[in-house]
Write a structure and sequence with these properties.
It is built from 17 helices and 23 strands. With 476 residues, the protein is an alpha+beta fold. It has a 7-stranded antiparallel β-sheet. A 6-stranded antiparallel β-sheet has the order 5-6-7-8-12-13, with helices on one face.
Length: 476
């Protein structure tokens, strides 16, 4: 089992008609690491929406034939998804499109709401019929409901932000405006920039701005909403400073691309610091430091620099594996297909192996076997995060303690189970030193949740009602 994050979002607002779909494609491609199950694009031209979404990677879904169907437009939003709430089904692909009495809207969302279950129940009791099993449709319903009571889409979003609770970085568009918003905790990243010819870009990470030639301007503040229209840019901050900032610390450890800068902190630098801290707390007598691609490499370089042990590339990742390849039936063969050990580097060596996390331990066990088969003499594993001990309710795919090896076993027991000579984790107390502040959420490590804990935490918690409606023959 690997850790996954829900998705990446991207938006374009252009003063003139242009190929906004192509820009969105490039942006989503840069955000592919945030979600590899499905993706979608919605383009706005003269108030009309044109869209396409499907299961698969960006380059699989948006073929040349598909991209050629999009006309030029002035706005587009896009989404790449990993399903943390709601199954991996085409119906759950985003962006979600809504037609309502006052117009239309398309919306893409990153994160999970802790109060989604209660909100959805309230909406269903009032007559709402849901078509998907994701949190995002709940957000769309709330925004639409508020839009019918307000004079503008931006007022509707501001009102909705006071109702929603949990993680939501989102981008949406009406027929005239593009809007982005970040929840008051700032759980998930969101930033914007501008191209040299005046196009405004909104993205989950700054790496996507660079991918389309946009200059980074700044991060969206927690609780802030920004409106992009032909009249210019408006920032509204009614919800800013209503909560203490709690950016997910795992963005720096694993989720984000190392070339991204989130809330003023370089992801690459944060991972380097993790390695340096590991070298301080968990030194090892070894010949070589290697990292597990991709997120373990930066921390391995930091460990090497702090310890004086040479760094080398001991594992190579197969970069040409997409989600459509036929997966082997056992974990060991899966690891061998994805990763390969360089025998000349690791043979007869005592290694410090750096990885970002251990969830169930099965992948780590297979990885250690792979290195042993290549001739590694000793393996001292170091993890650039603390042990996972608690579920996450804000967009990380950890929904149950029963899946977490650290909940059931000591560090020494885990080391024996995965076959390493020693094992060391990053101390929870050192997380703030990765980013230079304490404005982060580490609930999956320490159980200190910024919000209330939802009553129903199952990943498929919305499935039963939807399947029941299908059986009853009602439209879903």
């Amino acid at each position: 089992m690997s850790i996954h994050e829900e998705c990446g979002i991207f938006g374009v607002f252009s003063p003139e008609e242009c190929n906004v779909a192509q820009l969105t494609y490039y942006g989503l491609y840069a955000l592919q690491h945030r979600g590899q199950e499905s993706c979608g694009i919605v383009v706005c031209k003269d108030g009309l929406f044109e869209s396409y979404k499907d299961l698969g990677l960006v380059n699989e879904v948006f073929t040349h034939n598909v991209m050629s169907r999009f006309d030029n437009g002035t706005m587009a939003i896009g989404h790449t998804r990993y399903a943390t709430t709601g199954g991996n089904k085409r119906i759950n692909c985003q962006p979600i499109e809504v037609n309502h009495q006052n117009g239309k809207m398309a919306l893409a969302h990153n994160g999970n709401l802790y109060n989604a279950f209660d909100l959805r129940n309230q909406l269903e009791l009032s007559g709402a019929i849901f078509h998907t099993t994701s949190d995002t449709e709940t957000i769309a319903y709330i925004v639409t409901k508020e839009r019918l009571k307000t004079n503008s889409i931006e007022d509707a979003v501001i009102n909705a932000m006071g109702i929603l609770d949990g993680a939501f970085s989102l981008v949406l568009m009406s027929t005239q405006k593009m809007i982005c918003a970040r929840d008051p905790y700032g759980f998930r990243p969101l930033c914007y920039g501008k191209t040299s010819d005046g196009k405004y870009i909104v993205a989950s990470e700054s790496c996507a701005l660079k991918a389309v030639g946009a200059e980074f301007i700044r991060d969206i503040e927690p609780g802030e909403m920004m409106v992009f229209s032909k009249d210019g840019i408006i920032s509204r901050k009614e919800h800013v400073h209503k909560r203490n900032k709690k950016l997910c610390i795992f963005e720096y450890i694993y989720f984000a691309r190392p070339d991204s800068v989130i809330d003023g902190v370089s992801v690459h630098t944060a991972r380097n610091r993790a390695g340096e801290i590991l070298a301080k707390y968990h030194p090892a007598d070894a010949d070589l430091v290697i990292g597990v691609p991709d997120s373990g490499i930066d921390a391995a370089m930091g460990y090497s620099r702090a310890s004086g042990i040479p760094y080398d590339i001991g594992l190579i990742k197969n970069k040409y594996i997409g989600r459509t390849f036929i997966a082997p039936s056992d974990r060991m063969n899966m690891v061998k297909i994805k990763l390969s050990a360089i025998e000349n580097v690791v043979k007869n060596k005592s290694l410090v192996l750096i990885d970002d996390s251990i969830v169930r331990g099965t992948t780590s066990e297979c990885l250690v076997k792979l290195l042993r088969e290549a001739g590694a003499k000793e393996i001292h594993m170091r993890i650039s995060s603390p042990p996972f001990l608690h579920p996450c309710y804000y967009g990380t795919d950890i929904d149950s303690e029963e899946h977490l090896i650290a909940c059931k076993h000591s560090v020494e027991e885990i080391a024996k189970m995965i076959g390493v000579d020693s094992l060391g984790y990053l101390p929870v107390s050192e997380l703030g030193n990765l980013i230079g502040n304490n404005d982060y959420c580490s609930a999956c490590f320490d159980g200190n949740y910024p919000t209330l804990v939802p009553a129903d935490t199952r990943k498929d918690r919305f499935e039963k009602g939807l399947s029941q409606r299908n059986q009853d023959g009602e439209t879903v």
